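User:
Hi there, any thoughts?
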Amino acid sequence: MPPDAARRSDRSRLAVLTAALELVEELGYAKLTVEAVAARAGVGKQTIYRWWPTKGTLLFDAFVELRAAGRDVRPRGELGDDLKLELREAIAELVERRFDQVCRMLVHEARTDLVTLLLTPRRVVLEQRLAEAGRAGEIRSDVDVPTAAELLLGPVYQRWLLRTGPLTGAFSDTVVDLTLRALRA
């Protein structure tokens, strides 16, 4: 029986996405080449160009597709602890070389639409948790939830983008504590 072409394509696609993330972490965006990705993935360059017109689109797809698979839903705890955990995870993601390389490349290319797509899942989780807190009376009922989520994430993303100081858990915990003072009933 001949090999299933669809299965082979899925296997090749996953190999290319994985190779792209590994190589951007090892080499950085500037030194990453489609030739290197093809060699590591065991596919031809033409296969990559058939699916992705640029290394930027390849990295974007790799990051979105492979990162999305690892996101867990966890039980809820105390509001401050949940928010601190989420911001600490945001920081861990931002300082991860592959994320940093992909996002900085997208920012450099003025692809804020793609940066927004990469950052949206984190904001959505915060909005959901804050909405639950509003229904439970943990924060004021008049809180604008999307704005409150941006109030939490904004300082973290600004510090990452502008490199104005270290991205640490202590920093993000302070952001949560200050924000909750403003949001609590």
Q: What stands out?
A: The chain has two domains: 5-67, 74-183.
